[in-house]
Fold this sequence. Notes:
Elements: H1 2-23, H2 52-59, E1 63-64, H3 70-78, E2 87-93, E3 99-103, E4 116-122, H4 139-156, H5 161-173, H6 175-185, H7 188-191, H8 195-207, H9 212-225, H10 229-238
Parallel strand pairs: 1-2, 2-4
Antiparallel strand pairs: 3-4
Helix pairs in contact: 2-3, 3-4, 4-8, 5-6, 8-10
Amino acid sequence: xxxxxxxxxxxxxxxxxxxxxxxxxxxxxxxxxxxxxxxxxxxxxxxxxxxxxxxxxxxxxxxxxxxxxxxxxxxxxxxxxxxxxxxxxxxxxxxxxxxxxxxxxxxxxxxxxxxxxxxxxxxxxxxxxxxxxxxxxxxxxxxxxxxxxxxxxxxxxxxxxxxxxxxxxxxxxxxxxxxxxxxxxxxxxxxxxxxxxxxxxxxxxxxxxxxxxxxxxxxxxxxxxxxxxxxxxxxxxxx
Length: 239
């Protein structure tokens, strides 16, 4: 029994030390304006003829695209030259949030260059969020929300593992931290030339008749943590 308590004490001390190290990290919730020359995409991509092979050459290796959404994914990827050498998987799932960006957990414990980021896209036929799932969005809006998710990767790729842990804690416990992070991530498509696309997404989920019941149910959440179409339009105009 004495050996057990000694072992438990050691583990507790290590966990406290690890938590202290995580909490000591400095993590800014806001995204920064990228130092890139953004390509200006057309306002509407719905009728654009897309050369997939050419886009793959721009995007580079280390990427996967979700079946059925290849063009939208490749356009979004192509707007982020700083992610060319980053490993990213876009994966269709049967549950969870409509879209979320995560990591392959085991890749967090090693060099940043070996990390694998995952963008999980709910493709369920029986989801509460069905009206705003990727498959039900107009093409322009698909590109916009995928560009938002890639904006998260831009943020994560420069953080250490301990900083990511601190970010995760703050994201969960602080509404202000979360709102600052998500709203500044909404700006990333604008900075990368896809402002009209993220605007179309924000407008569609708030005003399309198929989305109205869901938006009315979650309006406070959506407008607190994400920029509205009105806010995005003003930002695009000023930017």
